[in-house]
């Protein structure tokens, strides 16, 4: 296909008349391959000749085309029409060819070149959407380009003035202030500023190369204006002289444009990519009143006019990164000025890079697409050419690919091949970015003459030998770390065989600081007087291994009107610093510095830390410089203490005062802290229980295994099991016990349950005999279903830990299955068997496996436990706790950790929680199952995922209206997917969950750093039809105990009963369960568990007025309209509420009726 | 979505039912006087028994109704008809409104239909202790009240009709509060207490159940053996389960079968013959094509659902 494209282009270019007509404007053509970048008309000639011809030589013979452009701005209509027609035809043909290629051998064709068919198809569609098209915007922009070019060329030359004169004269005559970079030129400068007609003007950049993605924002077109070499002197590269002249030149253009077009276009100055040395002129259509030439809805576009110079103006070797070009005034040492040098060099090389990229686009057919993919990828990660957002943008991306297509490998071989598909180019480039540390070892492309020294401070180097330029000169060290991190993450995402990483790679926006970083520091920009690099170095050194990543987000520079002076960075602008912490180290309270013997290091340590550094003697005898911080739980976190101290020491009081650190508001929401320490007593008690039970000798059968099956035993219960102070009534944790097999069990389900009771009685007796600190008693459950488990053994220790032990007998499954298959049993018995089987699998197989998996994952990811508990709290706060099973919430939260794409696994509760909500708001549960690999190590295999997907589709086919299964949550330990979601939540609940998550995400997006953690947990009650306010003393046992020994409370009986008999007593949930049983068909009930002492309800829409009948499952009023025939039944809401009030008795404080 | 109450007047009767309004007294949490409508008529089951004439069928029984409540209602407020017993409708199966009404809960002392002899024995002796001191009934449920005689039943119905006509005030739960276990927190406390019965009682119940169960089991085996060994009147011997000693379990047989199949498969290696390789390759290719089609369908589906693929 590439070949045919080439041919076609040649054919087309052989009709020079036509192409000349479109010469300057041809960059707007629809077609990727044959648009000629705006080298003017002369490119046509060269283009047909250049195949195979190296473009590396610097050409600057563009003088001839200026006139032509003017002449041929209005191509004759017929020729354009003909051309368009031809183009559409050929495009169609090509598309068809592509389609057939895919249709025939599509599956095999994409096997190697893309990740998967699904991925390829999505990428194709994405490209189709973002590929530039010729629309109204483009046409308007082109029209403007012609007009601008005309005006610029007509502008009169301005004689040479001294700096002062020049500035004054421009200001007087046309109210344009020269945008001199700082420092301002000295008044007594010897050199003269002048303006002459530009050598040529070109359209460059992604618009010309068709690598600009189509976006909703404005269309940006870069236009270079080459300043004639005659304006400059040999030594102008020194001491900003070039930049002063450039600024003057730009101001002259601005003056000319202002005079000619001030009614049509708005003009503003802006720093090119935030580089204050290089202001550019931005032309946008005039906003307030539309001009008659333009279409009524003003197409949004902007043209950046960038002055540049020819590549041979200054000698290359003077501008190498290790040279000094700003001579210090005094006798100071001349430091290299890499940024200045490269910035100047970049101006010289603009046409050259245009050629390089165009060449790459013509030799590699997938180059443009790879650039489009790259630019989308960068955009979603908030990276761009502007120095403030990293200095790695579209240009750097395409230049990097173009260079790597030429060299960079061992022995100067190209690292990328022209035959790669767009995806391969994209992925390979990311791979190189991720794997190669270019700040340690620069990437050399082409013959690098001499040894190019690296830029200090960990900035990366991609040295373009032939052009003598570091392509990544703008990239800051922190951005480079971030870029590599992102590239690594994406490579991992793309390598994940199980899940389609398309969305994470190209669709999701990843730049929200709250989601991206664990902590964000915000401080006024004015306090950081020195460069951001210093801030970065101080924070990086000070925080050491507590953080994985420090990223600085300086405020963006503003554009300004030509008449006004360049704005200084505003005081209210804020620098943001994002931290990604290492959860293992972040809360360490003692830092060891160098030993006292190593004098130099110790001195530097002391210099850095000031009086905070102490010399201490440690237990192992070593005497070290050290830092002591107070523990995180006391007020400020260690991170905050350190950051504030560092700011105060290195940037002054103001910085310390003005700084604001956001990030631990969420972990404070969790009762008793986000660490897993609160679970330790329960875990120990469980171990004790296991030892105790295994130690029993007189049991009829020996114990095979004891397995935990409760949220409290997997660090995941929203309330920690045993609080230290102010502890509440312990809730027993479920445990299963399995005995060795025996043939003496009865072969009947009911009898098995009774035998279990006998076993438990024996166990209880022996346990109490053997251990003193244990009380055990048998509790009954499932009274109405005699094939379900009938009893459990409740074991409480003196420490307060309590367990409920149920016997797992594997013969039950066989019997239940047999009963299900048996043709002789009736439907109700079958249904009972189905319920029994589900309960058996859930309680004895899935729950222990799930518990094990989550507990293991929690110990691997320290932030997971907190995230799960916070997410549970969120569900409970929004009164969804009784609808969404704990296990489902755990799976949702764990997903954020094992499939973190497009981020890395979160290292703080805040990031974990917010990303969980972010995913939840986007989860389309109608069409996507939730599949989590809880092993975290790839135990879930491709066929398993396939099988889960298939079973999900089967469920949806079986139950398309989602009456039974709405959410589908599977994991590697539970491939069935409906264990925790069978029957609930209902569709309306799942919809509410998504809506709430969306609202929360909108809040996060809207408030950004001003986000209040508690705000996400507040939920108004007026959405519900009625609200039962429960006596708050019932939900928190501790309140009752603390307050005056319970004597002031009406429920005195409770205080009288001793504590151990009340283990597991939870009247609210009993009440809720009973309400659901009694009124389930008329009311949808919501409860917040212990989080909020309310139960709310919505009347079911099924209770609408209908004709009366006997079997309505709710209380009714018989009504008869005066003339109606039959009696209607209307729900008797008040009677129902009265019943609820009677049932709840003193537990319900107040019933509030909204509707 | 919530039905708004219409302002139509309340009907006094529906079909053959009398709609008897019961005044509900206000409570502290819901200080509002409201009425509950109890529907009653003579019981007309499909299969009438000899008790049918003295029964009254109630619909929309309040959830907290007890036998005491209904006794008191008829005795004190509806002409003094004396109730012999009350049978409440059992737990419903499922949540649907039109779901079939299941038979009464097990464990009731009420007489149940004839079931398997052995089970019946076990049922009666091996009861587990009750865990609620007061059962609740699903909203809108039914009950059958059996009066002492036919006259009482008729009296009750007549007085109900009259009460409706005259609009006399009949209060639900008048004067029974002291005679029934309390509701609210106290009930849940009692439930919590009853959930943990005395181990001795429990042991006794389990022992009784198990001995009854094994007795039933023995009887059953014996009868089966007898059937097997004694020809019936026509000289045929009934074929029954459990004839052989130590028969193989069903699952074991199945597992053995699977094993055998697997062995069959590995006997001739899958790539032994050329045609096998060819077919395998063909199948792979087909899978690829099918996978591709599948993926395309999914992308198509995704587009339909989410609209065009656009970066956010």
Automatic annotation (TrEMBL), chain A:
Keyword Phosphoprotein: no
Keyword annotations: Nucleus, Ribonucleoprotein, Ribosome biogenesis, RNA-binding, rRNA processing
Organism encoding this protein: Oleoguttula mirabilis
Lineage of origin: Eukaryota, Fungi, Dikarya, Ascomycota, Pezizomycotina
MF GO annotations: RNA binding
Start-end of Acidic residues biased regions: 54-73
Residue ranges, annotated region (Disordered): 1-91
Xref: InterPro entries: NOL6/Upt22 (IPR005554), Nrap_D1 (IPR035082), Nrap_D2 (IPR035367), Nrap_D3 (IPR035368), Nrap_D4 (IPR035369), Nrap_D5 (IPR035370), Nrap_D6 (IPR035371)
Domain Nrap protein: 221-362, 366-509, 532-651, 672-858, 861-1017, 1021-1151
Official protein name in the record: U3 small nucleolar RNA-associated protein 22
Single Gene Ontology BP annotation: rRNA processing
UniProtKB/TrEMBL annotation, chain B:
One Pfam family recorded for the sequence: RRP7
Domain Ribosomal RNA-processing protein 7 C-terminal: 194-311
GO cellular component, one term: CURI complex
Residue ranges occupied by any Rrp7 RRM-like N-terminal domain in the UniProt entry: 15-191
CDD domains: dRRM_Rrp7p, RRP7_Rrp7p
Biased composition range(s): Basic and acidic residues: 247-263
InterPro entries: Nucleotide-bd_a/b_plait_sf, RRM_Rrp7, RRP7, RRP7_C
Region (Disordered): 103-124, 240-263, 280-312
GO biological process: ribosomal small subunit assembly; rRNA processing
Family: Belongs to the RRP7 family.
Protein's recorded name: Ribosomal RNA-processing protein 7
Organism ancestry: Eukaryota, Fungi, Dikarya, Ascomycota, Pezizomycotina
